[in-house]
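Supplementary Note 2. Why include the ligand at all?

Several targets in our set were suspected to adopt different conformations when bound, so apo predictions alone were not considered sufficient. For every target with a known small-molecule partner we therefore ran a joint prediction. The input for 6OD is given below.
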Amino acid sequence: MAAMKPAHYVNGVFSTTGETFPLLSPVDGSQVGVVPEATRDVVDSAVRAARAALDGPWGRSGVEERCAFLRRIADGIEARFEEFVDAEVADTGKPRELAATVDIPRAIGNFRAYADLSYGRPERAYPTTVPGWSGSGQALNYTVRRPLGVVAIISPWNLPLLLLTWKVAPALAAGNAVVAKPSEETPSTATLLAEVIDEAGVPDGAFNLVHGHGGAAAGEYLTSHAGVDAIAFTGASATGAAIMRNAADHVTPVSFELGGKNPALVFADADLAEAVEGTVRSSFTHSGQICLCTERVYVQRPVYDEFVRALAERARTLKDYGPMISAEHRDKVLSYYRLAVAEGATVVAGGGVPSFGDARDGGFYVEPTVLTGLPQTARTVREEIFGPVCHVAPFDDEDEAIRLANDSPYGLAATVWTTDLSRAHRVAPRVEAGIVWVNCWNLRDLRTPFGGVKASGIGREGGEYSLDFFSEPVNVCVKI
Ligand code: NAD
Ligand code: 6OD
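The joint prediction is reproduced in C-alpha coordinate form.
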Protein backbone atom coordinates (compact mmCIF):
# COMPACT_ATOMS: atom_id res chain seq x y z
CA MET A 1 0.00 0.00 0.00
CA ALA A 2 1.34 3.47 -0.92
CA ALA A 3 2.21 5.65 2.08
CA MET A 4 -0.38 8.26 2.91
CA LYS A 5 0.91 11.83 2.56
CA PRO A 6 -1.48 14.20 4.33
CA ALA A 7 -0.68 17.88 3.80
CA HIS A 8 -2.14 21.25 4.78
CA TYR A 9 -3.62 23.26 1.91
CA VAL A 10 -3.63 26.98 2.62
CA ASN A 11 -4.22 29.68 0.02
CA GLY A 12 -3.70 27.19 -2.80
CA VAL A 13 -0.38 25.86 -1.45
CA PHE A 14 0.28 22.38 -0.04
CA SER A 15 2.71 22.10 2.89
CA THR A 16 3.85 19.60 5.50
CA THR A 17 6.10 21.82 7.58
CA GLY A 18 6.50 21.55 11.35
CA GLU A 19 5.83 18.73 13.77
CA THR A 20 4.19 15.50 12.67
CA PHE A 21 2.49 12.52 14.26
CA PRO A 22 2.21 8.93 12.98
CA LEU A 23 -0.85 7.62 11.12
CA LEU A 24 -1.60 3.99 12.09
CA SER A 25 -3.56 1.35 10.23
CA PRO A 26 -6.39 0.09 12.46
CA VAL A 27 -6.20 -3.25 10.61
CA ASP A 28 -2.79 -4.29 11.95
CA GLY A 29 -1.42 -1.33 13.91
CA SER A 30 1.32 -0.62 11.33
CA GLN A 31 2.33 2.96 10.44
CA VAL A 32 0.90 4.06 7.07
CA GLY A 33 1.94 7.71 7.04
CA VAL A 34 2.81 10.85 8.98
CA VAL A 35 0.49 13.78 9.56
CA PRO A 36 1.57 17.41 9.96
CA GLU A 37 0.23 19.09 13.12
CA ALA A 38 -1.01 22.60 12.35
CA THR A 39 0.30 25.28 14.69
CA ARG A 40 -1.73 28.31 15.69
CA ASP A 41 0.13 30.22 12.94
CA VAL A 42 -0.90 27.73 10.25
CA VAL A 43 -4.53 27.93 11.38
CA ASP A 44 -4.33 31.71 11.47
CA SER A 45 -2.92 31.87 7.94
CA ALA A 46 -5.74 29.59 6.73
CA VAL A 47 -8.37 31.88 8.25
CA ARG A 48 -6.66 34.95 6.73
CA ALA A 49 -6.50 33.24 3.31
CA ALA A 50 -10.20 32.46 3.53
CA ARG A 51 -11.02 36.08 4.41
CA ALA A 52 -8.92 37.34 1.50
CA ALA A 53 -10.72 34.95 -0.88
CA LEU A 54 -14.03 36.58 0.06
CA ASP A 55 -12.58 39.93 -1.05
CA GLY A 56 -11.38 38.43 -4.35
CA PRO A 57 -12.85 36.55 -7.32
CA TRP A 58 -14.41 33.91 -5.06
CA GLY A 59 -16.38 36.56 -3.16
CA ARG A 60 -17.63 37.99 -6.46
CA SER A 61 -18.56 34.61 -7.96
CA GLY A 62 -22.16 33.86 -8.91
CA VAL A 63 -24.07 30.74 -8.08
CA GLU A 64 -23.70 29.41 -11.67
CA GLU A 65 -19.92 29.58 -11.41
CA ARG A 66 -19.86 27.97 -7.96
CA CYS A 67 -22.15 25.15 -9.10
CA ALA A 68 -19.80 24.53 -12.03
CA PHE A 69 -16.91 24.23 -9.55
CA LEU A 70 -18.94 21.77 -7.46
CA ARG A 71 -19.60 19.62 -10.53
CA ARG A 72 -15.91 19.71 -11.48
CA ILE A 73 -14.99 18.62 -7.95
CA ALA A 74 -17.47 15.70 -8.16
CA ASP A 75 -15.99 14.69 -11.53
CA GLY A 76 -12.47 15.02 -10.09
CA ILE A 77 -13.25 12.64 -7.21
CA GLU A 78 -14.87 10.23 -9.65
CA ALA A 79 -11.80 10.29 -11.90
CA ARG A 80 -9.60 9.27 -8.93
CA PHE A 81 -12.20 6.96 -7.38
CA GLU A 82 -9.89 4.02 -6.59
CA GLU A 83 -7.29 6.31 -5.03
CA PHE A 84 -9.96 7.77 -2.74
CA VAL A 85 -11.20 4.29 -1.80
CA ASP A 86 -7.64 3.12 -1.05
CA ALA A 87 -7.00 6.16 1.16
CA GLU A 88 -10.29 5.78 3.08
CA VAL A 89 -9.61 2.08 3.66
CA ALA A 90 -6.01 2.74 4.74
CA ASP A 91 -7.06 5.33 7.33
CA THR A 92 -10.18 3.64 8.73
CA GLY A 93 -9.62 -0.08 8.09
CA LYS A 94 -13.24 -0.29 6.96
CA PRO A 95 -14.20 -3.02 4.47
CA ARG A 96 -13.31 -1.90 0.96
CA GLU A 97 -16.85 -2.58 -0.22
CA LEU A 98 -18.20 -0.06 2.28
CA ALA A 99 -15.82 2.68 1.14
CA ALA A 100 -16.51 1.87 -2.53
CA THR A 101 -20.31 1.74 -2.23
CA VAL A 102 -21.02 4.32 0.47
CA ASP A 103 -18.25 6.74 1.46
CA ILE A 104 -16.78 7.81 -1.86
CA PRO A 105 -19.99 7.68 -3.96
CA ARG A 106 -21.74 9.80 -1.29
CA ALA A 107 -18.92 12.35 -1.38
CA ILE A 108 -19.43 12.68 -5.13
CA GLY A 109 -23.20 12.79 -4.55
CA ASN A 110 -22.84 15.55 -1.96
CA PHE A 111 -21.18 17.88 -4.50
CA ARG A 112 -23.68 17.05 -7.27
CA ALA A 113 -26.67 17.39 -4.93
CA TYR A 114 -25.62 20.85 -3.74
CA ALA A 115 -24.85 21.98 -7.29
CA ASP A 116 -28.46 21.12 -8.19
CA LEU A 117 -30.03 22.38 -4.99
CA SER A 118 -28.32 25.74 -4.81
CA TYR A 119 -28.74 26.53 -8.51
CA GLY A 120 -32.48 25.87 -8.32
CA ARG A 121 -33.00 27.87 -5.13
CA PRO A 122 -35.58 30.65 -5.42
CA GLU A 123 -35.26 34.05 -3.72
CA ARG A 124 -38.37 35.83 -2.44
CA ALA A 125 -40.06 39.14 -3.31
CA TYR A 126 -42.93 40.83 -1.45
CA PRO A 127 -44.86 43.65 -3.16
CA THR A 128 -45.89 45.85 -0.21
CA THR A 129 -48.57 48.50 0.29
CA VAL A 130 -48.77 50.52 3.49
CA PRO A 131 -51.95 52.65 3.51
CA GLY A 132 -51.33 56.18 4.81
CA TRP A 133 -47.59 56.12 4.16
CA SER A 134 -46.38 59.27 2.40
CA GLY A 135 -46.42 59.09 -1.42
CA SER A 136 -47.61 55.89 -3.04
CA GLY A 137 -47.15 53.88 0.13
CA GLN A 138 -45.80 51.16 -2.09
CA ALA A 139 -42.56 49.27 -1.94
CA LEU A 140 -40.93 46.15 -3.28
CA ASN A 141 -39.30 44.02 -0.60
CA TYR A 142 -36.94 41.36 -1.83
CA THR A 143 -34.84 38.95 0.14
CA VAL A 144 -31.47 37.68 -0.97
CA ARG A 145 -29.22 35.26 0.83
CA ARG A 146 -25.57 36.08 1.37
CA PRO A 147 -22.79 33.79 2.63
CA LEU A 148 -21.81 33.90 6.30
CA GLY A 149 -18.13 34.49 5.47
CA VAL A 150 -15.32 32.30 6.80
CA VAL A 151 -16.69 28.95 7.88
CA ALA A 152 -14.82 26.43 10.06
CA ILE A 153 -15.67 22.80 9.33
CA ILE A 154 -14.59 20.10 11.77
CA SER A 155 -15.28 16.46 10.95
CA PRO A 156 -14.86 13.04 12.62
CA TRP A 157 -13.13 9.80 11.58
CA ASN A 158 -15.98 7.40 11.02
CA LEU A 159 -17.16 8.50 7.54
CA PRO A 160 -14.28 10.88 6.83
CA LEU A 161 -14.90 12.11 3.30
CA LEU A 162 -18.68 11.66 3.38
CA LEU A 163 -19.11 13.85 6.44
CA LEU A 164 -16.50 16.43 5.44
CA THR A 165 -18.03 16.96 1.98
CA TRP A 166 -21.55 16.95 3.47
CA LYS A 167 -20.58 20.36 4.88
CA VAL A 168 -17.96 21.60 2.40
CA ALA A 169 -20.31 21.25 -0.59
CA PRO A 170 -23.17 23.44 0.74
CA ALA A 171 -20.71 25.88 2.36
CA LEU A 172 -18.98 26.51 -0.98
CA ALA A 173 -22.27 26.46 -2.91
CA ALA A 174 -23.53 29.29 -0.70
CA GLY A 175 -20.36 31.31 -1.40
CA ASN A 176 -18.49 30.94 1.90
CA ALA A 177 -14.75 30.45 2.22
CA VAL A 178 -13.88 27.31 4.16
CA VAL A 179 -11.22 26.25 6.62
CA ALA A 180 -11.64 22.52 7.20
CA LYS A 181 -10.03 20.30 9.81
CA PRO A 182 -10.65 16.56 9.41
CA SER A 183 -10.08 14.11 12.23
CA GLU A 184 -6.45 13.52 13.10
CA GLU A 185 -7.18 9.79 12.65
CA THR A 186 -8.30 10.15 9.01
CA PRO A 187 -6.48 12.93 7.14
CA SER A 188 -5.88 11.23 3.79
CA THR A 189 -9.07 11.60 1.73
CA ALA A 190 -9.34 15.23 2.89
CA THR A 191 -5.90 15.84 1.36
CA LEU A 192 -6.98 14.17 -1.89
CA LEU A 193 -10.07 16.37 -1.84
CA ALA A 194 -7.85 19.46 -1.58
CA GLU A 195 -5.92 18.23 -4.62
CA VAL A 196 -9.14 17.80 -6.58
CA ILE A 197 -10.38 21.24 -5.51
CA ASP A 198 -7.04 22.71 -6.61
CA GLU A 199 -7.25 20.91 -9.98
CA ALA A 200 -10.83 22.14 -10.42
CA GLY A 201 -9.48 25.71 -10.41
CA VAL A 202 -11.36 26.91 -7.33
CA PRO A 203 -9.78 30.30 -6.46
CA ASP A 204 -7.00 30.19 -3.86
CA GLY A 205 -8.22 30.59 -0.30
CA ALA A 206 -11.82 29.54 -0.97
CA PHE A 207 -11.04 26.12 0.46
CA ASN A 208 -8.29 25.59 3.04
CA LEU A 209 -7.35 22.45 4.90
CA VAL A 210 -5.43 22.11 8.15
CA HIS A 211 -4.56 18.90 9.95
CA GLY A 212 -4.02 18.19 13.60
CA HIS A 213 -5.62 17.29 16.88
CA GLY A 214 -8.72 18.82 18.46
CA GLY A 215 -8.48 20.10 22.04
CA ALA A 216 -5.61 22.54 22.78
CA ALA A 217 -4.56 22.10 19.12
CA ALA A 218 -5.68 22.88 15.56
CA GLY A 219 -9.40 22.20 16.22
CA GLU A 220 -9.53 24.54 19.18
CA TYR A 221 -7.36 27.22 17.51
CA LEU A 222 -9.81 27.21 14.62
CA THR A 223 -13.10 27.18 16.52
CA SER A 224 -11.98 29.90 18.92
CA HIS A 225 -10.55 32.12 16.15
CA ALA A 226 -12.06 35.62 16.02
CA GLY A 227 -11.94 35.54 12.21
CA VAL A 228 -14.33 32.60 11.92
CA ASP A 229 -17.95 33.55 11.17
CA ALA A 230 -19.60 30.15 11.66
CA ILE A 231 -18.74 26.63 12.81
CA ALA A 232 -20.13 23.42 11.39
CA PHE A 233 -19.08 20.46 13.51
CA THR A 234 -19.74 16.73 13.49
CA GLY A 235 -18.45 14.67 16.39
CA ALA A 236 -19.03 13.75 20.00
CA SER A 237 -21.51 15.69 22.15
CA ALA A 238 -18.82 16.52 24.74
CA THR A 239 -16.65 18.02 21.99
CA GLY A 240 -19.64 20.03 20.78
CA ALA A 241 -20.03 21.45 24.29
CA ALA A 242 -16.33 22.43 24.38
CA ILE A 243 -16.57 24.09 20.95
CA MET A 244 -19.71 25.95 22.00
CA ARG A 245 -17.91 27.40 25.02
CA ASN A 246 -15.17 28.75 22.74
CA ALA A 247 -17.66 29.94 20.13
CA ALA A 248 -19.54 31.87 22.82
CA ASP A 249 -16.70 34.40 23.11
CA HIS A 250 -17.39 35.66 19.58
CA VAL A 251 -21.10 34.68 19.44
CA THR A 252 -20.20 32.46 16.49
CA PRO A 253 -23.20 30.50 15.12
CA VAL A 254 -22.89 26.71 15.21
CA SER A 255 -24.39 23.73 13.41
CA PHE A 256 -23.81 20.56 15.39
CA GLU A 257 -24.26 16.90 14.43
CA LEU A 258 -23.43 15.01 17.62
CA GLY A 259 -23.66 11.61 19.28
CA GLY A 260 -26.54 9.18 19.66
CA LYS A 261 -27.82 6.18 21.57
CA ASN A 262 -30.32 5.18 18.95
CA PRO A 263 -33.31 2.95 19.72
CA ALA A 264 -35.02 0.36 17.53
CA LEU A 265 -38.61 -0.57 18.36
CA VAL A 266 -39.62 -4.02 17.14
CA PHE A 267 -43.35 -4.71 17.41
CA ALA A 268 -44.77 -8.23 17.53
CA ASP A 269 -46.49 -7.64 14.19
CA ALA A 270 -43.18 -6.87 12.43
CA ASP A 271 -41.75 -9.06 9.70
CA LEU A 272 -39.30 -10.60 12.16
CA ALA A 273 -36.73 -11.81 9.64
CA GLU A 274 -36.64 -8.32 8.15
CA ALA A 275 -36.38 -6.70 11.59
CA VAL A 276 -33.50 -8.98 12.55
CA GLU A 277 -31.61 -8.32 9.29
CA GLY A 278 -32.34 -4.60 9.62
CA THR A 279 -30.97 -4.60 13.16
CA VAL A 280 -27.87 -6.52 12.08
CA ARG A 281 -27.26 -3.71 9.57
CA SER A 282 -28.16 -0.89 11.92
CA SER A 283 -26.09 -2.19 14.85
CA PHE A 284 -23.08 -3.68 13.08
CA THR A 285 -22.45 -1.75 9.85
CA HIS A 286 -18.93 -0.24 10.02
CA SER A 287 -18.65 -2.12 13.33
CA GLY A 288 -21.19 0.21 14.91
CA GLN A 289 -19.07 3.31 14.22
CA ILE A 290 -21.85 5.31 12.58
CA CYS A 291 -23.71 7.89 14.61
CA LEU A 292 -27.00 6.41 13.32
CA CYS A 293 -26.26 2.88 14.54
CA THR A 294 -28.73 1.18 16.87
CA GLU A 295 -27.41 0.54 20.38
CA ARG A 296 -30.77 0.02 22.15
CA VAL A 297 -33.27 -2.51 20.83
CA TYR A 298 -36.72 -2.81 22.42
CA VAL A 299 -38.75 -5.84 21.35
CA GLN A 300 -42.41 -6.56 22.13
CA ARG A 301 -42.60 -9.42 24.61
CA PRO A 302 -44.33 -12.13 22.47
CA VAL A 303 -41.43 -12.13 19.96
CA TYR A 304 -38.62 -11.11 22.35
CA ASP A 305 -36.98 -14.55 22.85
CA GLU A 306 -37.16 -15.43 19.17
CA PHE A 307 -35.69 -12.04 18.17
CA VAL A 308 -32.79 -12.27 20.65
CA ARG A 309 -31.96 -15.81 19.51
CA ALA A 310 -31.97 -14.85 15.81
CA LEU A 311 -30.00 -11.62 16.32
CA ALA A 312 -27.36 -13.35 18.44
CA GLU A 313 -27.00 -16.11 15.86
CA ARG A 314 -26.47 -13.56 13.07
CA ALA A 315 -23.99 -11.57 15.19
CA ARG A 316 -21.94 -14.74 15.72
CA THR A 317 -21.80 -15.43 11.97
CA LEU A 318 -20.48 -11.97 11.00
CA LYS A 319 -16.99 -12.33 9.58
CA ASP A 320 -15.94 -9.51 7.25
CA TYR A 321 -16.09 -6.66 9.70
CA GLY A 322 -13.61 -3.85 10.22
CA PRO A 323 -11.68 -2.73 13.30
CA MET A 324 -12.23 0.10 15.75
CA ILE A 325 -10.48 3.25 14.55
CA SER A 326 -7.72 3.17 17.19
CA ALA A 327 -6.33 1.19 20.10
CA GLU A 328 -7.78 3.88 22.39
CA HIS A 329 -11.27 3.48 20.93
CA ARG A 330 -11.01 -0.33 21.06
CA ASP A 331 -10.10 -0.07 24.74
CA LYS A 332 -13.09 2.22 25.34
CA VAL A 333 -15.48 -0.23 23.67
CA LEU A 334 -13.98 -3.17 25.58
CA SER A 335 -14.34 -1.23 28.83
CA TYR A 336 -18.10 -1.01 28.07
CA TYR A 337 -18.20 -4.78 27.41
CA ARG A 338 -16.71 -5.28 30.89
CA LEU A 339 -18.96 -2.64 32.45
CA ALA A 340 -22.05 -4.34 30.98
CA VAL A 341 -21.10 -7.60 32.71
CA ALA A 342 -20.41 -5.75 35.96
CA GLU A 343 -23.84 -4.12 35.65
CA GLY A 344 -25.45 -7.58 35.35
CA ALA A 345 -25.79 -8.08 31.58
CA THR A 346 -26.06 -11.43 29.89
CA VAL A 347 -23.69 -11.56 26.90
CA VAL A 348 -25.64 -13.53 24.28
CA ALA A 349 -23.09 -12.99 21.49
CA GLY A 350 -19.51 -11.71 21.31
CA GLY A 351 -18.22 -9.65 24.20
CA GLY A 352 -14.50 -10.01 23.51
CA VAL A 353 -11.66 -9.67 21.01
CA PRO A 354 -11.67 -11.94 17.95
CA SER A 355 -8.68 -14.04 16.97
CA PHE A 356 -7.97 -14.22 13.23
CA GLY A 357 -4.62 -15.98 13.21
CA ASP A 358 -3.19 -13.36 10.84
CA ALA A 359 -1.92 -9.74 10.81
CA ARG A 360 -5.32 -8.50 12.00
CA ASP A 361 -4.47 -9.83 15.47
CA GLY A 362 -2.26 -6.72 15.75
CA GLY A 363 -5.22 -4.52 14.82
CA PHE A 364 -7.97 -2.92 16.85
CA TYR A 365 -10.85 -5.42 16.50
CA VAL A 366 -13.69 -6.25 18.88
CA GLU A 367 -16.46 -8.81 18.46
CA PRO A 368 -20.00 -7.92 17.39
CA THR A 369 -21.85 -8.13 20.68
CA VAL A 370 -25.45 -8.61 21.82
CA LEU A 371 -26.39 -7.94 25.43
CA THR A 372 -29.59 -8.47 27.42
CA GLY A 373 -30.79 -8.17 30.99
CA LEU A 374 -29.81 -4.61 31.92
CA PRO A 375 -32.11 -2.07 33.55
CA GLN A 376 -32.81 1.16 31.65
CA THR A 377 -30.68 2.98 34.24
CA ALA A 378 -27.48 1.04 33.42
CA ARG A 379 -24.65 3.17 32.00
CA THR A 380 -24.32 0.62 29.18
CA VAL A 381 -27.89 1.47 28.15
CA ARG A 382 -27.51 5.24 28.55
CA GLU A 383 -24.05 6.09 27.19
CA GLU A 384 -22.93 6.07 23.57
CA ILE A 385 -20.42 3.24 23.03
CA PHE A 386 -19.86 3.67 19.26
CA GLY A 387 -18.96 0.04 18.69
CA PRO A 388 -20.60 -3.14 17.32
CA VAL A 389 -22.90 -3.66 20.27
CA CYS A 390 -26.57 -3.45 21.17
CA HIS A 391 -28.63 -4.19 24.25
CA VAL A 392 -32.03 -5.85 23.75
CA ALA A 393 -34.89 -5.39 26.24
CA PRO A 394 -38.59 -6.32 26.18
CA PHE A 395 -41.65 -4.04 26.24
CA ASP A 396 -45.38 -4.67 26.51
CA ASP A 397 -47.24 -1.92 24.66
CA GLU A 398 -46.83 1.12 22.41
CA ASP A 399 -46.71 3.65 25.26
CA GLU A 400 -44.00 1.72 27.07
CA ALA A 401 -41.99 1.37 23.83
CA ILE A 402 -42.11 5.13 23.25
CA ARG A 403 -41.29 5.90 26.90
CA LEU A 404 -38.22 3.63 26.77
CA ALA A 405 -37.08 5.04 23.41
CA ASN A 406 -37.35 8.60 24.71
CA ASP A 407 -35.68 7.87 28.05
CA SER A 408 -32.23 8.99 26.82
CA PRO A 409 -30.12 12.14 26.85
CA TYR A 410 -29.72 11.65 23.08
CA GLY A 411 -32.18 11.93 20.19
CA LEU A 412 -30.53 11.38 16.82
CA ALA A 413 -32.22 8.50 14.99
CA ALA A 414 -34.67 5.67 15.62
CA THR A 415 -36.08 2.72 13.72
CA VAL A 416 -39.59 1.29 14.03
CA TRP A 417 -40.34 -2.24 12.80
CA THR A 418 -44.04 -2.98 12.27
CA THR A 419 -46.42 -4.11 9.52
CA ASP A 420 -49.24 -2.00 11.02
CA LEU A 421 -49.27 1.22 9.01
CA SER A 422 -51.42 3.09 11.53
CA ARG A 423 -49.06 2.11 14.34
CA ALA A 424 -46.07 3.31 12.31
CA HIS A 425 -47.66 6.73 11.82
CA ARG A 426 -48.74 6.92 15.48
CA VAL A 427 -45.37 5.96 16.90
CA ALA A 428 -42.86 7.69 14.59
CA PRO A 429 -43.75 11.32 15.42
CA ARG A 430 -43.79 10.58 19.16
CA VAL A 431 -40.18 9.33 19.20
CA GLU A 432 -37.77 12.08 20.27
CA ALA A 433 -35.32 11.84 17.40
CA GLY A 434 -34.46 13.94 14.36
CA ILE A 435 -34.79 10.96 12.00
CA VAL A 436 -37.19 8.01 12.32
CA TRP A 437 -36.94 5.11 9.86
CA VAL A 438 -39.88 2.72 9.49
CA ASN A 439 -38.98 -0.81 8.31
CA CYS A 440 -35.60 0.38 7.05
CA TRP A 441 -32.40 2.02 8.28
CA ASN A 442 -30.15 4.71 6.85
CA LEU A 443 -32.12 5.03 3.62
CA ARG A 444 -31.06 8.56 2.66
CA ASP A 445 -32.48 11.32 0.49
CA LEU A 446 -30.05 14.26 0.55
CA ARG A 447 -32.90 16.80 0.39
CA THR A 448 -34.35 15.77 3.75
CA PRO A 449 -33.50 17.37 7.11
CA PHE A 450 -30.76 15.54 8.99
CA GLY A 451 -29.87 16.15 12.62
CA GLY A 452 -30.66 15.39 16.21
CA VAL A 453 -32.59 16.64 19.22
CA LYS A 454 -31.41 16.90 22.84
CA ALA A 455 -27.66 16.10 23.17
CA SER A 456 -27.55 14.86 19.56
CA GLY A 457 -27.18 18.23 17.94
CA ILE A 458 -28.20 21.75 17.10
CA GLY A 459 -29.85 22.60 13.79
CA ARG A 460 -30.46 20.54 10.69
CA GLU A 461 -28.32 19.76 7.67
CA GLY A 462 -29.37 18.39 4.28
CA GLY A 463 -30.96 20.07 1.28
CA GLU A 464 -32.20 23.60 1.88
CA TYR A 465 -31.47 23.22 5.63
CA SER A 466 -27.72 23.28 5.03
CA LEU A 467 -28.03 26.13 2.54
CA ASP A 468 -30.03 28.05 5.16
CA PHE A 469 -27.34 27.53 7.78
CA PHE A 470 -24.50 28.55 5.47
CA SER A 471 -26.17 31.80 4.39
CA GLU A 472 -28.26 34.55 5.91
CA PRO A 473 -31.21 36.41 4.46
CA VAL A 474 -30.88 40.12 3.78
CA ASN A 475 -34.09 42.02 3.11
CA VAL A 476 -34.01 45.03 0.78
CA CYS A 477 -37.01 47.38 0.84
CA VAL A 478 -37.31 49.71 -2.21
CA LYS A 479 -39.95 52.44 -2.15
CA ILE A 480 -41.69 52.65 -5.53
P1 NAD B 1 -14.62 13.86 18.35
O1 NAD B 1 -15.62 14.82 18.88
O2 NAD B 1 -13.62 13.31 19.29
O3 NAD B 1 -13.77 14.52 17.18
C1 NAD B 1 -14.41 15.10 16.06
C2 NAD B 1 -13.54 16.21 15.51
O4 NAD B 1 -13.46 17.26 16.46
C3 NAD B 1 -12.11 15.79 15.21
O5 NAD B 1 -11.69 16.45 14.02
C4 NAD B 1 -11.34 16.33 16.41
O6 NAD B 1 -9.98 16.61 16.15
C5 NAD B 1 -12.10 17.60 16.70
N1 NAD B 1 -12.01 18.07 18.09
C6 NAD B 1 -11.87 17.33 19.21
N2 NAD B 1 -11.84 18.14 20.30
C7 NAD B 1 -11.97 19.42 19.84
C8 NAD B 1 -12.02 20.69 20.48
N3 NAD B 1 -11.94 20.82 21.80
N4 NAD B 1 -12.17 21.79 19.71
C9 NAD B 1 -12.27 21.68 18.36
N5 NAD B 1 -12.23 20.50 17.70
C10 NAD B 1 -12.08 19.37 18.43
O7 NAD B 1 -15.45 12.73 17.64
P2 NAD B 1 -14.92 11.43 16.92
O8 NAD B 1 -14.40 10.50 17.97
O9 NAD B 1 -14.03 11.82 15.81
O10 NAD B 1 -16.28 10.85 16.29
C11 NAD B 1 -17.16 10.05 16.99
C12 NAD B 1 -18.30 10.86 17.56
O11 NAD B 1 -18.90 11.63 16.54
C13 NAD B 1 -19.41 10.00 18.12
O12 NAD B 1 -19.92 10.60 19.28
C14 NAD B 1 -20.46 10.04 17.02
O13 NAD B 1 -21.78 9.78 17.43
C15 NAD B 1 -20.31 11.43 16.53
N6 NAD B 1 -20.82 11.56 15.15
C16 NAD B 1 -22.01 12.19 14.95
C17 NAD B 1 -22.53 12.29 13.66
C18 NAD B 1 -23.85 12.97 13.35
O14 NAD B 1 -24.12 13.21 12.18
N7 NAD B 1 -24.66 13.27 14.33
C19 NAD B 1 -21.80 11.76 12.59
C20 NAD B 1 -20.61 11.12 12.85
C21 NAD B 1 -20.10 11.02 14.15
O1 6OD C 1 -25.94 10.46 5.69
C1 6OD C 1 -25.62 11.57 6.11
O2 6OD C 1 -25.84 12.61 5.48
C2 6OD C 1 -24.96 11.69 7.41
N1 6OD C 1 -24.73 12.94 7.84
C3 6OD C 1 -24.62 10.59 8.11
C4 6OD C 1 -24.03 10.62 9.38
C5 6OD C 1 -23.57 9.49 9.91
C6 6OD C 1 -22.92 9.45 11.18
O3 6OD C 1 -22.00 8.75 11.46
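DSSP finds 16 helices and 22 strands in the chain. The longest strand covers residues 138-147. Comparable summaries for the other entries are listed in the accompanying table.
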